[in-house]
Amino acid sequence: MRGSIPLMRARARLSLLSIVAFSACMDATASVSVPTPPALRSVEVDSVTIGARLRVSVAAAALVRVTYSAGPDEPTLQMERALTSEDGAVVLERLLHGRTYGFSARAVSASGVEGPATAGSFTTPPLPDDLASEQFEAIGSPSESLLMLDLIGKSGFTGFAAVDDRGQVVWYWRTVGPPQGWTRRANGNFVLNDLGNGLREISPNGDLVRRLDFDYFGPTPHHDLIATPQNTILFISQDFRTPAGSPTIWGDAIYEWTPESSALVKRWTAWDWFNPATDWSDVSTPLDWLHANSLALGPHGNILLSLNWLSQVVSIAPDWSHLEWRLGGNGSSFAIDSAAAFSGQHSVTMPLEGHVLMFDNGRERADGAQNSRALELVLDTVARTATKYWSFEPVVRAWAPYVGLARRLTNGNTTVFFGLPSGYRGATGPVASYEVQPDATVRWSLIIGNVTSVYRGVPMTSIAGETVVR
What is the pLDDT of residues 16-25, one digit of tens each? Predict the structure, then answer.
């Protein structure tokens, strides 16, 4: 019996500790209360244009969550905004037009507990007739649920339009001139190029925030623009000079714009690195020497510029001090094998170091073939060679001698966009977007009809941060 007493005492202590621990847990559970946020003071529909603006009154700073849908067969969307008692606007985006939406708004605590709901409804206006006449046929399921189009329609619409995965227009902004390139700032605002008029920074709900006007004797934005990590905007501009004994020649430059301060700096000009006497092609003219048509940031902060008339891409050093290389055309830094040869390219990017992705329009194929493709090259900086790494063409070959896009998505798929209809400048058509997997399988396609041309079709996750919850 003596030998068992220590064991009995140990068991007793263990039991006592278990009881104490259990009691502590019970006390902790009992003492923890998760407060429910108070009901919103009021919610009213202030306006419905591109989006629906809700005016929401809260007693104190709170996260407000709004869910909204146009019916049981339509997706349910969700928007969240941190509001104060002085700032009470929530704009619901990605709306179908000519539909009635029901919504539910409530405050949400830091732990995710939702307060009482305030419900309501609103009806969106119909699409304008000239945009409603455009035709979209979608097949499949894309990785990115939206596609932004720089669209010129046959019925009169000119501007930017976003379509969803089913080919339905859910956002648009009308331009005066042709839409030609856009980017997005850290605050979520779009900066759109209205060709011949200038850059326009607008909110997702279409409110004009800032502008940079086109000026024939100053900045003349065209073709492309990008947002930088410093929250500024780089854009391509025309840059004319009159060399001795020659007519005035229009080259290209890159400007940097700071919208908040209106500061404008010319960062680079082709005149410092190219010479019309030697860097001239069969399609170059005094009014359009190089035809720069795309701008992108590279993996190490370099700037990629596509010179369409020269069928050449250049990499500009991050500090603008020199050209890192020239790819394609006369004076190329790399020897390019026949499978990798490109011409008349658009939308050039570097998805990773040493790789160059582009839409190869193929205006001047050595064999005379007429076909366009997405093309990815790998650069060997030691051997100074460029070889084909990946490419995509539709099952039925398509030729778009102008415009187009190839854009790598975060999941490794690629969006490939053909922007010309049959018969336009010799194109075969159709105007079409494809999301392509690495093995060239098409995951999603969109065929677009009744348009004159679409400069680009760029994949996009959201318009203003909205998410699809079911």
Answer: 334 334 444 4
